[in-house]
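Box 3.1. Reading complex inputs
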Amino acid sequence: MDIKILLDEYNATRSRTMELIEPLLEEDCCVQSLPEASPVKWHLGHAAWFFEAFVLQHYETAFQPFQQEFLTMFSSYNSSNVPHPDPKRGLFTRPSLKATREYCHNIDERMTNLSHQVTADEMLQMIITLGIHHELQHQELMLTDLKHLLSQNPLNPIYQPKIDLRATDSSISAPLKWHSFDAGIIEIGYEGEGFSYDNESPRHKQYLYPYQLASRLVTNGEYLQFIEDNGYDNPCFWFSEGWNWIKSTHCHHPLYWRHEAGAWKEFTLHGLVPLNLNLPVIHISYYEASAFAQWRGARLPTEAEWENTASLQKIAGDFADNNYFHPRHTAIGESVKINALYGSAWEWTQSSYSPYPGYNPKKSNSNKPKSDIWDVAVGEYNSESMVNQYVLRGGSCITPRKRIRPSMRNFFPAETRWQFSGIRLARNET
Amino acid sequence: MDIKILLDEYNATRSRTMELIEPLLEEDCCVQSLPEASPVKWHLGHAAWFFEAFVLQHYETAFQPFQQEFLTMFSSYNSSNVPHPDPKRGLFTRPSLKATREYCHNIDERMTNLSHQVTADEMLQMIITLGIHHELQHQELMLTDLKHLLSQNPLNPIYQPKIDLRATDSSISAPLKWHSFDAGIIEIGYEGEGFSYDNESPRHKQYLYPYQLASRLVTNGEYLQFIEDNGYDNPCFWFSEGWNWIKSTHCHHPLYWRHEAGAWKEFTLHGLVPLNLNLPVIHISYYEASAFAQWRGARLPTEAEWENTASLQKIAGDFADNNYFHPRHTAIGESVKINALYGSAWEWTQSSYSPYPGYNPKKSNSNKPKSDIWDVAVGEYNSESMVNQYVLRGGSCITPRKRIRPSMRNFFPAETRWQFSGIRLARNET
Amino acid sequence: MDIKILLDEYNATRSRTMELIEPLLEEDCCVQSLPEASPVKWHLGHAAWFFEAFVLQHYETAFQPFQQEFLTMFSSYNSSNVPHPDPKRGLFTRPSLKATREYCHNIDERMTNLSHQVTADEMLQMIITLGIHHELQHQELMLTDLKHLLSQNPLNPIYQPKIDLRATDSSISAPLKWHSFDAGIIEIGYEGEGFSYDNESPRHKQYLYPYQLASRLVTNGEYLQFIEDNGYDNPCFWFSEGWNWIKSTHCHHPLYWRHEAGAWKEFTLHGLVPLNLNLPVIHISYYEASAFAQWRGARLPTEAEWENTASLQKIAGDFADNNYFHPRHTAIGESVKINALYGSAWEWTQSSYSPYPGYNPKKSNSNKPKSDIWDVAVGEYNSESMVNQYVLRGGSCITPRKRIRPSMRNFFPAETRWQFSGIRLARNET
Amino acid sequence: MDIKILLDEYNATRSRTMELIEPLLEEDCCVQSLPEASPVKWHLGHAAWFFEAFVLQHYETAFQPFQQEFLTMFSSYNSSNVPHPDPKRGLFTRPSLKATREYCHNIDERMTNLSHQVTADEMLQMIITLGIHHELQHQELMLTDLKHLLSQNPLNPIYQPKIDLRATDSSISAPLKWHSFDAGIIEIGYEGEGFSYDNESPRHKQYLYPYQLASRLVTNGEYLQFIEDNGYDNPCFWFSEGWNWIKSTHCHHPLYWRHEAGAWKEFTLHGLVPLNLNLPVIHISYYEASAFAQWRGARLPTEAEWENTASLQKIAGDFADNNYFHPRHTAIGESVKINALYGSAWEWTQSSYSPYPGYNPKKSNSNKPKSDIWDVAVGEYNSESMVNQYVLRGGSCITPRKRIRPSMRNFFPAETRWQFSGIRLARNET
């Protein structure tokens, strides 16, 4: 690929990042409200850092860091070289948002200069492509983390004013239907020439039993029935560990639901609004998703079942690109049998996040050139997380469309709720 | 089956339980040294409780509890009816060991009387059979929990004096070899008329890629090399979560290893002995098993790979029945290609503990009669634990032989070390 | 003093210790139910250890320890030589109770032999006297810790069966009266030839303002009024720290009160009995004592006020010597104005535990000979605890009479409840 | 007093507050780096809130809150009406710093209007005076909390650039001398017509034994000797609780000291500078102050000793008013015997924070009018903290001069280190 084209993509991605933070105050960009979240400013600096650390440092002649400390402050690796979110990132009031923007601008200029000087080898193309996808991921995390931060404020700040989220005619959720899929040996995993993470490879066979998937996501209304049926008070729906989680956290509803003055409301990036019963339930843990499914006499799909079905459908859905940061419908893509497989809400699967057969951790995923840069750069996406996490599929309303492939695997610990996670039901074909 | 035969099995099991606690003091039987362990005395009362609560209470005419409080004190269900180990069981100094033995004796007598009075329906047979397997499980847990308790004592108490555990000619471990197994659709899971837990069903197909299994378990000597190669100090071998586990627990060797006066020793149920480098390493977490495999350039087997291979072999190995409560050899069953698949040490697999396709939680596993008794009685073995746990296979040197089938699934959280857990390496056929 | 007389006292003390554990099972003596408590068996071994470590080790010719490990297992000093209760003492199932009794017997014999062989120097006399008082203290702690242990058991075990603790005519509590005491310079602290701890010295002057003390201890009935007046729900009665303590512990009544089937009961060493409203309230924290006083429009006394008044009275009260291990009256010593200043319940004072003016930590308290033995032996009683603890005075129903002097200072952290602690009200003379 | 004069004082105080935050970024003002600290922006809004809640709400005709939510967001009382720092204040990114300034400006205008309309009754004067002292206190806390926040940043931000803090001739510390003070009945506590907090009253008698105070504060150099003498590794200098504190926190030097590249440095509000051995040691806990004193064969003074001596001296010292936010000398006020009793560093006393004899919590301290407003307004300064805290005296280099009186009592828990706390040694006259 021509490096000029790649740089256009780089610039478009960076512009979008800047657009997303436009409505925010300096203060909004600095604070961290969860140990596992990061401040918006850190996401911004970190996205630029990727290119300084993995591109400029290796390809720029006479490389000089913009500021020496930024190479560690904006790194996602701790002192032991293990990737992890740092609960102290929110304490970095300096560099200011202004100074962090200047850092980004500097990196942009140097990336442009670089594109005039070097001939893109395959490794350079791979790293820049990875950096772009890395930034797309952080665009999503920015909004995810910001939503949690704003939700902590009694003033209920609005990220972007929007039209009313209450039910309109078009958003009345259709009755849930079940669609059947056949048994047999199927294949999942990425194959092709485009970008993918190493955890999507290799493409491999699995044996599937006949299964059914629900035609749409579980709605707030259905979830409310579960609550009103004392779902949170009945241990028979829950894993023992999930039951202990309820007892210690006192969770009794999705993360951003609030019961005020006798009515349910939901905090969104468009403000605090009445709970719309027809929209998909989001911000629930794996424990809650599983318990709901158990209550409904169903189960969560496996990731193989999900991907097998998703591979048959066109990727269409509520993504971040339309600048609406909350699910809008349960009926996306009316022409397909299974609505909203993509976008709207990340769908918990029952699959533990584990390596595919033949997966080779810490290595690139195909016949591409290998190098130390690559190994470090992709370290963030490989095997270190492959214990005690569960796979989510399909992207959400704050996911950039470009991030999503049928084979894309997202993963979080079972108690995670601040992600835009929802429920797709499955069951055995009987 | 004739209920008389079943009662013989009941009596034999109870005798064995009593034999196992013979060497212990009242004090040894009362104390709990870990929240997830139970005192020996509780295991004893709980084994008897099973028959009082699930057999006598339903089949005895004019049932009267031996002592009302025992129905809750010896139950494994907490007030919310969720099974869980109770960290306060060790505070129950009453009933005394003597009184608990009397409880068992009383239950034995009533079980004998019952066998003269009732005709065994299928449900009664199933429940008694389940109770016997339940007691076998608790025989194993008794020894597991006792070992931890005794290990906390500066006097290094000996449960059973034994001959020296140091290397003898016969126990020199053979060189590790790799044996290959073919790809294709295989079947795993229990099928047959005998006893099995519901989590082993239904028998089902899986697609396997060609794989290799190590000819024997990893030895203490090999694990020591990992330690001496700074395996615990190098994050690249560890899951992020495992690395955090090291940082918070400061683990740097298997649970019962000690470095004293320049030499490695190992605490065993036969006393504190010099570490035998030729014996299998035991008492390691899933994190440690995975890190060792990564360091060796290998991986852990999946449970499907393990069972596929194990199904081909005769069940033979170091089990508790021979009254030797530590692994003795790495070369069990010289005639087989894969040594010590059964007994010696529970083998961590890389498989997250999850339901088999078509698994129906809270139900018996076949065409057997269903009832509420059964549903409650087997509640302990079903789906409540199917999150954030990993499967172990094959049994250990303290497992009663009768507990083990090729399809038997044991499961524990990744940080668990007080079980007799070891490492079987696997790798992809290249 | 003749060493023979001292040995008689030694033997009498040891006999009493043995008498106190007579009703107990091996199991009762082994288990530890609180990190800050110790098992009865440990108290027993520790009392003997004192004489082995501080007397025999220094005065016996050709000293050989009874068992080398006991010198550390029964020591109250941890590896850093700092005194502290060890939350793992309850894990020592060995030595057995029987073996621990043999240890005591051995020490007794060696103490007798020693008394025949050595001429008592002043230091030897001091150490033996200290050891006897040390054992008296542990007699009290034994019962204190045992009560907590037994209280954890659903069987409500009875340490010693006794007559009914319900109100009898003689135990109706008298109306609370206030007695006034003058202002001026007074003196507190120990002075004399008898035994005292170093924290009681030197005797010194303090300036007191006129004050009043309540004629009797606060009763269960009065405390119940505080509860029924929502005392635990009203922050204005509580220190901020005490309020946080309520929020985190959910305490809403004294430690051993229980509300069962609409009635209040109290767990005692004589069994679970109906709450007697006329008896003194016990087992409350400093937070609760202070909040009750605030609610009553009064305050707790300072230790100087308490001692100033107590010095004027004969020491008489409900002590452990009468083998009744619960307060029996509020009107002890009818002839005195202030009832039950001694015995019945330790009385929280508002005084932080701090050194008296001129106090010299780590030194004996008078003109007695000084040595390293002494400094280590008394280390348990001196300055290491003089931060964040509060002084209690007067002894309780489980305190041996010989422990108590007007100047005796007991001290515990503000949240402590398992001691037999109660409330004496004070107020300013207006 | 004329309300116009009072308003001048109000305006001067507010101007100073604004001056102090001038060098800061929006981000610096928003973040909270300790649960017990507050963001600068919160301090600002809280200072204004005091006047809105306690003055305008009661005296303004047709009172309308500036913004309803501010009455709770900027309150120091939690939902249970108990004063406490809120660890979530740092999550309030809104109102912005700009909006918070506007809030202050609005309050200033309304206070001015009010002063033209009402005739100041005594209560109004008292509340405004209290509000001014309240704001002075928060000026100090702002700098205290800010220092901790900036210290967390790898960029070592400088609050105010200053001249070098290294030793100059004039700052070489004088040899420590001891000055003696007589025994007898003395009086401490506030008496007079000026402002004081209720905890300083009533003035009362105490009996003092002869004592000595050190001529100057302990220096960094002396404290370094303690460290180099393994003071942090020797339990004999420490309270048991202090020793446990070391073990759990791994503290081995004052809070803002750093050992980098073989040299000691100190983080200050004027940047990271080489440790000046001649300046007073600051930012140490009560545990450390006590251990140092023990190591030196001395002790901490009681608050009565401190006040008795301080009352004799003119109040002069390093205060915040000179815009230098770090101690500059050990020899302040050359003409006095005891240097730097005031300013430089808050001096830990050995006195537990407790009520003075005759203290009446929740009441004003003299014959002033009493009312509900007053009781709530001064709730922050009275008895709720009188458990498990220790008294500090004399003010520090960041304390406004107007806050300090001889009788002024500051108080913090023993483990507190982020305050500007130092050591004045005392000992008994021998």
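In summary: The radius of gyration of chain B is 22 Å.
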